[in-house]
Design a protein that fits this description.
- Helix content is 0%, strand content 63%.
- It has strands spanning 2-6, 12-18, 21-29, 35-41, 44-51, 57-62, 68-70.
- Strand 5 and strand 6 form a beta hairpin.
Length: 71
């Protein structure tokens, strides 16, 4: 289903959930204004655009080992 979540650090997610995980399309906004819009699988970003708070953008994803990669 669809939902929203705020954490104690001021980060915010809105998008699809499955079994308590971010799963499907969603948007995560960090407390500093950086935004990731894209796809999630089991709460890991697997491909989307990152809008950094300085105005730059990048496409990024998590590798299987957990490393964040931008292109």
């Amino acid at each position: 289903g669809y939902g929203e979540y705020w954490d104690a650090n001021g980060n915010y997610y809105n998008g699809q959930f499955s079994d308590g995980y971010y799963h499907g399309e969603g948007t995560f906004t960090w407390y500093d204004g950086t935004v990731y819009k894209g796809r999630y699988e089991l709460s890991k970003p697997v491909g989307g655009t990152i809008y950094f708070s300085d105005g730059t953008t990048a496409w990024g994803y998590h590798e299987e080992n957990g490393d964040w990669v931008t292109e």
